[in-house]
Amino acid sequence: MDRVARLAPDTASFAAARRLMNPSNWVTLGEDGNGLVWGECQGSGAKPYRICLSETDAGFKCTCPSRKFPCKHSLALMGFRAERSVTFVSETVPDWVQEWLSRRRTASKDKSEAPSQDKTALSGPETAQKQAQQARTRARRESEIASGIAAMNQWLGDQLDRGLAGFDQRANVDCAILAKRLHDSKAGGLASRIARLPESLSSLDAGERPFEAARCLSTLYLIGQACLRAEGLDPHLVADARRMAGWTFTREELFADTQALRLSGQWRVLARTETLQPDRLTRVDTWLGFEQDPGVVALLVDYVAPASQTGSLPVLVNDRLTAELAFYPSPVPLRAQIVTSTGVAASSDPWRCPAKSLSTAMTGWRQALARLPWLGAFPFYASCVSLRQAKDRLYLTGDGLALPLSESITDIASPLCPFDEIGIFGTWDGRHYTPLLAETALGAWTP
Asked: Which residues touch 220 (CB under 8 Å, ≥6 apart)?
């Protein structure tokens, strides 16, 4: 039950789950014998809430309207399994559980299906017409996005002509106009970057704002140019740029891509962060380290809607996931999807930071930035480093280097300052280092 308590979003949710762990509250409790369990818990309404849990790949669903993630019903079902205090009836999987399985984003695809199969040759006239319609839709969208990028380039030129020294004063209005234009052109990725820029600038000192504006606007220009001038560029670079601009690259397309990087083995959960976005969706980032090659790190991204009780179970730092991952095409492959998984389990041994100096880690970042100019937050390990405070700022120090931490994390990370040497995992975006996991003489630290 200790693990269930750690998964709970707060102590109140865990306490409520404890109260629900009474068989009299449950209409049904079933399992299929292969890691799939479900139950119906009677609430205040006429119909019981339906909860299902896949123990093999840590997915779950509950029909309750709770905004807690996971909710008390899901936690109670996990608690039953952890304590083995009740009997789950082995029976045929109900239709509502089957429906959940069929719609799961992490459902495994049949590997026996050949992705390169020529479906046109095997299909009839209706399928050919559908494919032709899809091709016209793709062409129209490509034209719309290209039009949006052209408008963005003109806007960028206008901003440079007016000068970036006063850009922060007009950013709210000017960025809103361009963001709407890009959104209408189906370039949602670029629109989101532009929409976030005014808030990003307002958080900086006035003297830093023109430089940050120049960095962000040049990044937009590079992404746009990579989309428009694809010929002669690295296909992986173009694929990454198109994804950044707003072209959708579905899970099914990733799995069907025979050239996509795939890695199978054990992955350790290094960090998990949640960010509430302007569209009210919660973005959940899970960083995984490849046990067979500590230099390989993968990022799983999930989005949770308000009051949604469908998604992946919030795994804990130091959990181990046995899975095959497929990486989206990029010169610096980080973003990945789970192809197949055989389960999540708590690790019996503590995390040990791979031996790597801070200067070597920074060299790796520079090389990655050279391959992908809009790199963003880049993960790396560094051993034998220290956190030191100068005035109101914290710095990650080692090898004569000092990387500033964001001011927002100063209070959280300050307990690491007394240690002379630590191992650390985190992300560096070119301006700030964000520590996510540290190995200290007293054990692991997490923010």
From this structure: 152, 156, 190, 193, 194
